[in-house]
Design goal:
single chain, 17 strands, alpha/beta, 26% strand, FAD/NAD(P)-binding domain, seven-stranded mixed beta sheet, 12 helices
Length: 416
């Protein structure tokens, strides 16, 4: 088969976040054609603060010293607050090179590097569905910035389009079992002195703790200082145990926002940060933080990466790095195989059946699941599931959680 008359790229990457842009950069550096299809007007369109520890991969992709150059400050650790803010436990940061920065600066650097390498980035372009032929995904249909439906073909399709991935949903990934609803909010002039309060703050709220929402799921309110009196604050519903709990009712979006408004005004400790503050941005969204997607290769030719695969650091530590690391692995291993298949040939567009035969897919998966990155994320999910079972399902209420806070503090210090 020849695709000479078709629009063809070796790597078709759906989603222009850090995972997708990392994949495009690595593919281009390996000498392959890559296209990023992003539905937003700009890549990574939503504003937010962000934080991550230093990893060599960041400098490999974005350049030596870049993360340090955009750093607003380095925090000293985390503080976990028990329900009602009756107790707390500080967890010092083991690595002091943990940076917080503005999302836009971070993403713009990816774009600059990718475009400098010749990566094609299609903005305002929304993927409709994958294209399959003979049980192999060979491309995608998408609507371009003029509203025209087009087809594009390639050797590998990466679903890097987040917690409600079009690619993942096409292959029946049940994201409602993977995602945790989360309110993300940016505030300025927060009621804090950044020179005195550099820790991340987490307020644990059990099921039944809120008298105005007694069946509300267990959740965590958080405060992330991002420089000066600027803060990212929010509320994440913890869904790992929710579907097993008879005392929990899954709330509507409206009910979540009603609870959020009350927490901002009156929840002990947490509400203090809002006094005199200005809300610059506020949104209810989702984060794949309950479990990994087991079938991350849902069809030959497709790999779900990062948020689309639930491949995040579920404890909230440098999730960006791990999605980038997953992108690097899959781009690298497929690039190596493409080079092997192309040796001595002038055309590499006809190798999809060899690239994605069952033997190769089995080997790819085995190699991936033997990486330290995969093992780390799997371990974190396992530990978090056990911790949340104990605190939110077995203990459940504020009274019982506070009664066992000494043990809970010990568990938190051990790694969560």
């Amino acid at each position: 088969m020849s695709n000479k008359n078709l629009e063809f790229y070796n790597f078709i990457i759906v989603g222009g976040g850090p995972a997708g842009l990392t994949a495009s950069i690595i593919a281009a550096r390996q000498g392959f054609k890559a296209v990023v299809i992003e539905k937003g007007e700009i890549a990574g369109p939503k504003p937010r603060g962000e934080g991550m520890r230093h990893f060599p991969l960041t400098e490999e992709i974005l350049g030596e010293g870049f993360l340090h150059s955009i750093n607003n400050f380095s925090h000293t650790g985390k503080i976990f607050h028990s329900p009602g803010d009756l107790h707390m436990v500080p967890i010092p940061e083991k690595s002091m090179d943990h940076y917080f920065f503005e999302w836009r600066k971070f993403i713009d650097r990816f774009i600059k590097v990718a475009e400098g390498l010749g990566v094609t980035i299609l903005l305002n372009s929304e993927v409709i569905e994958p294209i399959e032929k003979e049980n192999i995904c060979t491309g995608v249909k998408y609507k371009d910035d003029s509203g025209n439906v087009k087809e594009i073909y390639g050797n590998a399709i990466f679903g890097c389009d987040g917690y409600e991935s079009v690619i993942g949903r096409y292959y029946n990934i049940l994201y409602e079992r993977i995602n945790c609803p989360i309110v993300k909010c940016l505030i300025s002039n927060g009621n804090t002195d950044i020179n005195k309060t550099t820790d991340l703050q987490y307020y644990l709220i059990g099921n039944g703790d809120l008298d105005y929402a007694p069946n509300f799921p267990q959740c965590v309110a958080y405060v992330f200082p991002i420089g000066g009196k600027n803060l990212e604050v929010g509320l994440m519903l913890r869904m790992t145990q929710t579907f097993k709990m008879k005392t929990v009712k899954i709330p509507t979006d409206e009910e979540i926002m009603e609870v959020w408004e009350k927490l901002k005004k009156s929840y002990p400790g947490f509400s203090e940060f809002f006094k005199g503050a200005k809300i610059d941005y506020e949104e209810l969204t989702g984060l794949p933080n309950a479990q990994m997607v087991k079938n991350y290769i849902p069809s030959a030719g497709v790999v779900l990466i990062g948020d689309s695969a639930g491949f995040v650091e579920a404890s909230g530590s440098s999730g960006l790095h791990f999605s980038m690391a997953m992108a690097k692995f899959w781009t690298t291993i497929l690039s190596e195989k493409l080079k092997e298949l192309s040796e001595g040939k002038t055309e590499i567009t006809a190798h999809n059946s060899e690239l994605w035969n069952s033997q190769n897919i089995t080997r790819y998966k085995k190699d991936w699941e033997n990486t330290d990155v995969y093992k780390h994320i799997k371990k974190i999910y396992s530990l978090l599931s056990k911790f949340e079972w104990y605190i939110f399902k077995r203990r459940r209420t504020s009274e019982r959680i506070n009664k066992r806070w000494k043990l809970i503090s010990f568990l938190l210090r051990k790694g969560l």
